[in-house]
From TrEMBL:
<keyword id="KW-0479">Metal-binding</keyword>
<dbReference type="InterPro" id="IPR047678">
    <property type="entry name" value="YjiM-like"/>
</dbReference>
<dbReference type="GO" id="GO:0051536">
    <property type="term" value="F:iron-sulfur cluster binding"/>
</dbReference>
<keyword id="KW-0411">Iron-sulfur</keyword>
<comment type="similarity">
    <text>Belongs to the FldB/FldC dehydratase alpha/beta subunit family.</text>
</comment>
<dbReference type="GO" id="GO:0016836">
    <property type="term" value="F:hydro-lyase activity"/>
</dbReference>
<dbReference type="InterPro" id="IPR010327">
    <property type="entry name" value="FldB/FldC_alpha/beta"/>
</dbReference>
<dbReference type="Pfam" id="PF06050">
    <property type="entry name" value="HGD-D"/>
</dbReference>
<keyword id="KW-0408">Iron</keyword>
<protein>
    <submittedName>
        <fullName>2-hydroxyglutaryl-CoA dehydratase, D-component</fullName>
    </submittedName>
</protein>
């Protein structure tokens, strides 16, 4: 990634520290990804993106900024990309998934904060992530307590807009969320200098719906008896989807889906017949957090679905298209986004219904409920979720982990025993 050194310097990055990150990533990627056999050829695109993860897309974003476009950094799947796209803005995900960034976050946050928040704050404060340097505005939300407080630190030297998310999903909460979307629209208009109209918002809704459909096509292929793609590869596609241009993302995912559909027709599988099929649910797995999938898939099972924000929650449910007024569009957006089932809502039993449906659709043998350490929301919800699954006779394993490798051996033992128990 040496070609990008000048760009990183101009972004004010900590070059020495960043060099250390650049040294570890290719080895980790090689060990986890390139060691797999019989990968779909289409994954070459995502391998290429990872090979220049801090260079290729950041350079595109900087070029767009030179042409007057604004970049919005987001941290949650509730923030409606459509509003930004309508104003010719660009959205980039900013969630940190590496232990490398955690100590930087711990300098200002309590150690008992979830690693996702610590890594995100560390990536910003340590100046080791170009996406955090490039974003013109951060968009936060009031989903969990850790994030709410982190915004106050992150917003000290970057414009920050916070969307106030309801905690329940009654009709009045959906109306409130539509109001938040309308307010966000005004913020985006002011910041970009571009007016959002019924027409350009409609166009943006279609762009993001197309991206959702393309991601959904790939997931659909994972339902086949002969699984044409590993869970690790599908996870990588999802993780990059938060950073990529949405039109290109849809195009590449559709190409991959074409190949996977052909593989299914030809009976090509990435694993032997009878391999146990796992659904992973819980807290998000931000890039480059591949630990859990790697352990599962090197323990004799395959991940066929992720019910998480780096999974089905990101692409399921479309926004109604071609509505005639902005007010109708805000409500349509609010309705779609409020169908997402995060543990920050009470009650959140629709998530359990989703998981039960997916267990059936993806022909799942067992569920692994993963919780990032110190995420009280998902940890607490785990009790009811696991009880619901057990009542239905679905084997479930609850685990708590972080970004370190300290628990890797213990996880291998527990996950190995769980897979063996599946018979
Ligand atoms: S888990 Fe909840 S807070 Fe985190 S990204 Fe998903 S929806 Fe947002
Ligand atoms: S994993 Fe939990 S604690 Fe961490 S950001 Fe998401 S909701 Fe908040």
């Amino acid at each position: 990634m040496a070609d990008y050194e000048k760009m990183w310097e101009e972004l004010g990055m900590n070059m020495e520290l960043h060099d250390r990150l650049c040294q570890v990533l290719p080895t980790a990627f090689g060990d986890v990804y390139l060691s797999q056999e019989n990968r779909p050829e289409g994954m070459g695109f995502w391998d290429f993106v990872v090979s220049g993860i801090h260079g290729i897309r950041p350079a595109e974003l900087i070029e767009a900024q030179k042409n007057g476009q604004k970049v919005f950094g987001t941290f949650c799947v509730y923030v409606p990309d459509e509003v930004v796209i309508a104003a010719k803005g660009i959205v980039t995900g900013l969630c940190g998934g590496s232990q490398f960034w955690v100590p930087g976050g711990e300098k200002v946050l309590p150690k008992g904060t979830c690693p996702l928040i610590k890594a995100s704050v560390g990536a910003r404060l340590d100046k080791t992530c170009p996406f955090f340097r490039i974003a013109d505005m951060y968009v936060g939300e009031t989903t969990c307590d850790g994030k709410k407080k982190a915004w106050e630190i992150l917003g000290e030297d970057v414009p920050m807009h916070i969307m106030d998310i309801p905690q329940m999903k009654r009709e009045k909460d959906i109306v409130k969320w539509a109001g938040e979307i309308e307010e966000f629209k005004k913020v985006v208009e002011d910041f970009t200098g571009n007016k959002i109209t019924v027409e350009n918002l409609n166009e943006a809704i279609k762009i993001i719906n197309n991206k959702r459909k393309a991601l959904g096509r790939v997931f659909n292929c994972r339902k086949a008896a002969k699984v044409p793609i590993s869970g690790k590869d599908a996870l990588l596609m999802m993780q990059i989807a938060f950073f990529d241009d949405p039109v290109r993302c849809a195009e590449m995912c559709n190409k991959l889906a074409d190949e996977l559909e052909k593989r299914i027709a030809d009976g090509v599988s990435v694993c032997p017949e009878g391999t146990k099929r796992i659904l992973v649910t819980g807290t998000p797995l931000a890039i480059p957090n591949w630990k859990l999938h790697h352990i599962i898939e090197t323990s004799g099972a395959i991940v066929v679905c992720e019910e998480m924000c780096t999974g089905t929650r990101y692409f399921e449910n479309m926004v109604e298209e071609d509505l005639p007024t902005l007010e109708a569009q805000y409500m349509a957006l609010a309705r779609r986004y409020m169908k997402t089932n995060c543990a920050c809502f009470t009650p959140n039993t629709a998530r359990f219904d989703d998981i039960l449906r997916m267990v059936d659709e993806y022909k799942v043998d067992g569920v692994i409920d993963v919780n990032l350490k110190f995420c009280n929301l998902y940890d607490t919800e785990g009790f009811l979720l696991e009880r619901t699954l057990k009542e239905k006779g679905i084997p479930v394993l609850g685990i708590e982990t972080d970004y370190t490798d300290a628990d890797a051996e213990q996880l291998k033992t527990r996950i190995g025993a769980f897979i063996e128990m599946l018979g």
